[in-house]
C-alpha cells in the first residue's frame, strides 16, 4: 500500500513520512511523575508492538521524570504539552524525542522561539494536534460547527508560526470523535500540507466503539495512502489499543509479522465449549510477533475445510478436536488439552 508523499521527519531512530511504514503509537494513562509505573507500562506496550509512546506533561515533576523514563525504555518518547512553554523546554532538556504542542497556545512569539530553537538544537520534531471539539472561538463562529475546513484553517495558523521561524520538522493530526469528519479532515489535510500525518479518532470510547469508529475512519484513510503514524484511542489501559491497531494495519496490508486468528461464530452444530479456547488464543497472540495463521473451528461441517488453509488449527467435535497443521491432521485432543497444545505449536512455529 503506497503512502502519499510527505516530508520525512525523524523521531529518535524512526522516520515518519517519506516511506510506506505506518508507525504504531500509544499513550500512557498514569501520571508521568510516577516514573517506575510509566516505565513498566511502556515496556509492556513495547512487547505488544508499540513503536512510539506519548506521556502527559502537566508540571515540572512530570518533565523531570522524562529523563528516568527515557533511560529505561527502547522506543521514542513523546511529551504532551499544553500552554506552558517552560514544560516543553524542560522535557527537551531531559531527552524527549518529540513534543506535542500547538505553538499558538503557549503565549508570546518569544516563548515559541525558545521552544523552536531548543527543538532545532536537539533535532526534536513538533506535532501540532487539531481536535474538532477545541477549535479557536473565531473559527467555530465562522463555520458554525466543527468542519474539516475549520480544522485546516486552525492548523494553518500553527504551521505558519513554525514556518516563519524556519522550522519544518512538523507532524500534524486532525482528530474528531466523528469518524466521518475525521475522514474528511485528513483527506483535506493530505491535499493541503506535505507534513506527515498522525491518524486517530479522539474520544472513541470503549473497546467496541473505538474499534468500529477507528476501523471506519482510519481504515478508509489508510487504504487511501494517508497516514504515517496511528493511534487507536480506547478508554482504559493503553494495552487495549495495540491489538486493534495491529489487526487494522495487517488487514490493510501494512503490517507483517502479525498473527492471524480465524474463528467461526459458533452455531447449533458446535458440540464443545469453544469460546474460552478462542479467547485464550486471542490473548496469547497479542505478544506473538510471527506471521502465523491460527484457526479455531466449531464443527466438522466447515471446520476441516477451513482449517486446512491455516498454519495451525483446531476443528472441534464433541468435547474434543482435531489438531491440524498446514492441512494435515496431526492428532485428536480433548478440550482440556487444547490450550496447552496450541501454545506448543504456536511457540514452535
From TrEMBL:
It comes from the Bacteria. Keywords: 4Fe-4S, Iron, Iron-sulfur, Isoprene biosynthesis, Metal-binding, Oxidoreductase. Residues 260-347 form the IspG C-terminal domain. The keyword Ribosomal protein does not apply. The keyword Oxidoreductase applies. Its cofactor is [4Fe-4S] cluster. PANTHER family: 4-HYDROXY-3-METHYLBUT-2-EN-1-YL DIPHOSPHATE SYNTHASE, 4-HYDROXY-3-METHYLBUT-2-EN-1-YL DIPHOSPHATE SYNTHASE (FERREDOXIN), CHLOROPLASTIC. This is 4-hydroxy-3-methylbut-2-en-1-yl diphosphate synthase (flavodoxin). The gene is ispG.
Amino acid at each position: 500500500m503506497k503512502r502519499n508523499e510527505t516530508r520525512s521527519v525523524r523521531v529518535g531512530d524512526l522516520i515518519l513520512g517519506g516511506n510506506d511504514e505506518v508507525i504504531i503509537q500509544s499513550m500512557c494513562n498514569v501520571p508521568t511523575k510516577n516514573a517506575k509505573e510509566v516505565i513498566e507500562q511502556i515496556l509492556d506496550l513495547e512487547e505488544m508492538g508499540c513503536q512510539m509512546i506519548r506521556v502527559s506533561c502537566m508540571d515540572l515533576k512530570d518533565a523531570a521524570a522524562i529523563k528516568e523514563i527515557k533511560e529505561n525504555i527502547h522506543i521514542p518518547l513523546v511529551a504532551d504539552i499544553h500552554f506552558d512553554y517552560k514544560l516543553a523546554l524542560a522535557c527537551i532538556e531531559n531527552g524527549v524525542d518529540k513534543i506535542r504542542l500547538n505553538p499558538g497556545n503557549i503565549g508570546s512569539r518569544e516563548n515559541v522561539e525558545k521552544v523552536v530553537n531548543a527543538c532545532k538544537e536537539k533535532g526534536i520534531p513538533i506535532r501540532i494536534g487539531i481536535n474538532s471539539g477545541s477549535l479557536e472561538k473565531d473559527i467555530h463562529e465562522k463555520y458554525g460547527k466543527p468542519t474539516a475546513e475549520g480544522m485546516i484553517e486552525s492548523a494553518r495558523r500553527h504551521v505558519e508560526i513554525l514556518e516563519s521561524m524556519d522550522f519544518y520538522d512538523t507532524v500534524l493530526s486532525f482528530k474528531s470523535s466523528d469518524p466521518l469528519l475525521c475522514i474528511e479532515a485528513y483527506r483535506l489535510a493530505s491535499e493541503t500540507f506535505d507534513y506527515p500525518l498522525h491518524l486517530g479518532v479522539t474520544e472513541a470510547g470503549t473497546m467496541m466503539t473505538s474499534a468500529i469508529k477507528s476501523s471506519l475512519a482510519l481504515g478508509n484513510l489508510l487504504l487511501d495512502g494517508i497516514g504515517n503514524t496511528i493511534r487507536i484511542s480506547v478508554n482504559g489501559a493503553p494495552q487495549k489499543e495495540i491489538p486493534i491497531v495491529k489487526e487494522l494495519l495487517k488487514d490493510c496490508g501494512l503490517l507483517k509479522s502479525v498473527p492471524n486468528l480465524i474463528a467461526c461464530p459458533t452455531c447449533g452444530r458446535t458440540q464443545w465449549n469453544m469460546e474460552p479456547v478462542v479467547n485464550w488464543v486471542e490473548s496469547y497472540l497479542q505478544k506473538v510477533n510471527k506471521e502465523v495463521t491460527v484457526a479455531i473451528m466449531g464443527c466438522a461441517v466447515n471446520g476441516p475445510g477451513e482449517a486446512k488453509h491455516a498454519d495451525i488449527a483446531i476443528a472441534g467435535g464433541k468435547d474434543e478436536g482435531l489438531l491440524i497443521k498446514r492441512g494435515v491432521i496431526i492428532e485428536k485432543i480433548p478440550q482440556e488439552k487444547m490450550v496447552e497444545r496450541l501454545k506448543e505449536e504456536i511457540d514452535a512455529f
